[in-house]
């Protein structure tokens, strides 16, 4: 079974709620940024529930709309549309007696929301092209990285559907708000990687943990896991120090050089003007033409940037 790393007060209180809700078929809405562990938590709720031996069926609500959406969720009968060569079950039927995980539920197309709500209320539906009412017994857990209440306000998500889904809301905070867990997670993921790749588990220097704690992790736990996997695969040593971290990661900590745009422009224009003047042997008319500016503009820029050239177009300093 997958382990869910807690090590912070917020996560421990989340787990208490999880233990409670797992026992009952109550609808749970998991919210949190991408990569915070919503799907993993949904699986844990399922595994702690009386439905643990039955299927856990995840479905991404964001990729389909209209009939395709209905087909994916409710299935179809043979011949119900071109290409429907045999009867096909939808996710609701596949998840019968188990748990249906509605991922990115904010993306259920507005046109499908009414029918969807009805099914979530009585768990009865027709397959596309069918006339036999199918009845299923599924537990619903949904997840979103959007603010659903806000979507409701904007008219993009039905309010009744929202209340149906979020009987118990659980919010998972971003990794940057629970940095105390980073140390333990690093150990956990390296254990996992060592097992997966049959390679000894490396140690990690305190400097690396320190750097990790100073980073914001926009991709949350998924980003941390992926970074560790990359470092783990690419290094054969038995310790991970700062030198082992990829440079594109370390860039986040480097001071940016001054990037005054006016200065950048002055330097680039000066270089171009000198180059052209030099090639045109100091002929300002022709240089202006090549630079696609008027001779007047060229004179102005020479003045303004303090560029002085001799008759042959060489820089006089
Ligand atoms: N608390 C945690 N402990 C261990 N692994 C975690 C934890 N949170 C997330 N992960 C791992 O991080 C990755 C992303 O998690 P996932 O559940 O897919 O996030 P989300 O659904 O919110 O985008 C997965 O590999 C998951 O196993
Ligand atoms: Mg996800």
Uncertain stretches of 5 or more adjacent residues: none
- Strand portion, in percent? 5-15%
Counting structural domains, the number is: 3
Biggest sheet features: 5 strands, parallel
According to DSSP, the number of beta strands is 9
- In CATH terms, the superfamily of the largest domain is P-loop containing nucleotide triphosphate hydrolases
Structure description:
- The protein has 317 residues and is an alpha/beta fold.
- It has three domains: 165 residues, Rossmann fold, CATH 3.40.50.300; 78 residues, Helicase, Ruva Protein, domain 3; 44 residues, Arc Repressor Mutant, subunit A.
- The protein is built from 14 helices and nine strands.
- The protein has a five-stranded parallel beta sheet. A two-stranded antiparallel ribbon has the order 4-5.
- Helix 8 packs across helix 10 and helix 12 packs across helix 13.
- The longest helix has 19 residues.
- The structure holds adenosine-5'-diphosphate and magnesium ion (MG).
- The site of adenosine-5'-diphosphate has 13 residues, from helix 2 and helix 10.
């Amino acid at each position: 079974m997958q382990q869910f790393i807690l090590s912070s007060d917020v996560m421990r209180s989340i787990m208490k709620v999880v233990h409670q809700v797992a026992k009952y078929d109550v609808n749970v809405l998991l919210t949190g940024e991408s990569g915070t562990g919503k799907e993993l938590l949904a699986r844990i709720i399922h595994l702690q529930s009386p439905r643990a031996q039955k299927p856990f069926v995840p479905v991404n609500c964001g990729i389909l709309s209209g009939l395709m959406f209905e087909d994916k969720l409710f299935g179809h009968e043979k011949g119900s549309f071109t290409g429907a060569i045999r009867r096909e079950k939808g996710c609701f039927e596949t998840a019968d007696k188990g748990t249906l995980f509605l991922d990115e539920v904010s993306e259920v197309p507005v046109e499908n929301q009414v029918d969807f709500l009805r099914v979530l209320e009585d768990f009865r539906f027709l397959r596309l092209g069918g006339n036999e009412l199918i009845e299923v017994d599924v537990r619903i857990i949904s997840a979103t990285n959007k603010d659903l209440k806000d979507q409701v306000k904007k008219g993009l998500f039905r309010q009744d559907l929202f209340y149906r889904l979020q009987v118990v809301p659980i919010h998972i905070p971003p990794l940057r708000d629970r940095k105390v867990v980073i140390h333990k997670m690093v150990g956990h993921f390296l254990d996992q990687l060592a097992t997966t790749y049959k390679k000894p588990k490396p140690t990690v220097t305190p400097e690396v943990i320190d750097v990790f704690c100073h980073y914001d992790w926009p991709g949350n736990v998924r980003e941390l896991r992926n970074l560790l996997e990359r470092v783990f695969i690419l290094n054969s040593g038995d310790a991970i120090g700062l030198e082992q971290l990829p440079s594109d990661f370390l860039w986040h900590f480097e001071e940016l050089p001054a990037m005054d745009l006016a200065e950048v422009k002055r330097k680039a224009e000066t270089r171009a003007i000198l180059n052209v003047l030099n090639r045109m042997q100091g002929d300002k008319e022709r240089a202006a033409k090549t630079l696609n500016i008027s001779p007047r503009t060229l004179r102005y820029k020479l003045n303004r940037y303090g560029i002085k050239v001799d008759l042959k177009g060489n820089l006089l300093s």
